[in-house]
Design goal:
ROK family protein; 9 helices; alpha/beta; ROK_cs
């Protein structure tokens, strides 16, 4: 049976169809704009439009579809929550999609889909014995997904893997979630740029901050990168102490910083509950921005 997946983003909706669970050859990929500013009902209609376009091109309809979503379906209320496309929050998206498409659908957070795709199709292929894979997203925000024995673990409240909203810095910056000092408010890209701007004469993008640190010409840039590495070590050590994954894959723009995999890795040893030793592979993803839609298909 062909595997259909849809990645529902704030600006685009992408559909991909894989040949089968045994042969993950990509048969077709197509994108259309989300047009989220037109509201929730319009997003549903855009999804229907995309499914129809792909079905016409492929010559057959899906039997079921997996969706990567920017938030999560609350297991208790069966409505969406934690979506940065805010018009989706509070709506029974699973029910509405099944009604308009006429087939079963399965929804998962986009970070969970990232983790699933990397575990089964991407970086995880180099670690076939990895039973527990954690996918980290470090970009404009911080998120994560947990995959155990090839299955996404959503958890009791649907928030499995949401390490970005654990408190990392006491009395830190306030977060939209209602707490202060969340991981996201410390080591996400905007948080690091804010730290630099608060301590320097002018704001800079993270790329420029990193360049100035590496050139050794800017003490504030160095303090910013040191802050990233130190708190990365603390945050990953906590995650490791709880889950002890066999593999960690880091996606997102901040995850491209090579120092995380050398100096950042060393910082984990200071805090891990294992005699200051860590052997967990921490690697970059292999699937790029395709991970979300492939993970959705694999649901």
């Amino acid at each position: 049976m062909k595997l259909w997946g849809i990645d529902l983003g704030g600006t685009k909706i992408e559909c991909a169809v894989l040949e089968s669970s045994d042969n993950m050859n990509v048969l077709i990929r197509k994108r259309i704009p989300t047009e989220a500013d037109k509201g929730y009902e319009h997003i549903i209609s855009q999804i229907k439009k995309l499914v129809d376009l792909v079905a016409d091109e492929l010559g057959e309809r899906p039997q079921k579809i997996g969706f990567a979503t920017p938030g999560v379906l609350d297991p208790a209320t069966k409505t969406m929550k934690n979506c940065n496309t805010v018009c989706m929050n509070g709506n029974p998206m699973n029910k509405d999609l099944e009604a308009v498409l006429g087939i079963p659908v399965k929804l998962a957070n986009d970070a969970n889909c990232f983790a699933l795709a990397e575990a089964l199709m991407g970086a995880g292929k180099d670690y076939p014995d990895a039973e527990v894979v954690f996918g980290v997203i470090m970009g404009t925000g911080v998120g994560g997904g947990l995959v155990v024995h090839g299955k996404v673990i959503g958890g009791q409240h649907g928030i499995g893997g949401e390490w970005g909203h654990n408190i990392l810095e006491e009395n830190g910056e306030p977060c939209y979630c209602g707490k202060s000092g969340c991981v996201e408010k410390v080591i996400a890209g905007p948080a690091l740029e804010k730290y630099y701007a608060d301590n320097a004469e002018k704001p800079l993008k993270l790329k420029e901050i990193l360049e100035r640190h590496e050139a050794g010409i800017d003490p504030v840039a160095t303090a910013t990168i040191e802050r990233l590495l130190e708190y990365f070590g603390r945050a990953i050590s906590t995650l490791t102490n709880v889950l002890d994954p066999n593999l960690i894959v880091i996606g997102g723009g901040v995850g491209n910083i090579d120092l995380l995999y050398t100096e950042g890795y060393e910082r984990i040893k200071k805090y891990i509950f294992n005699d200051k030793k860590i052997t967990t592979p921490i690697v970059k993803p292999l699937l790029g921005d395709s991970a979300g839609v492939f993970g959705a298909a694999l649901l």
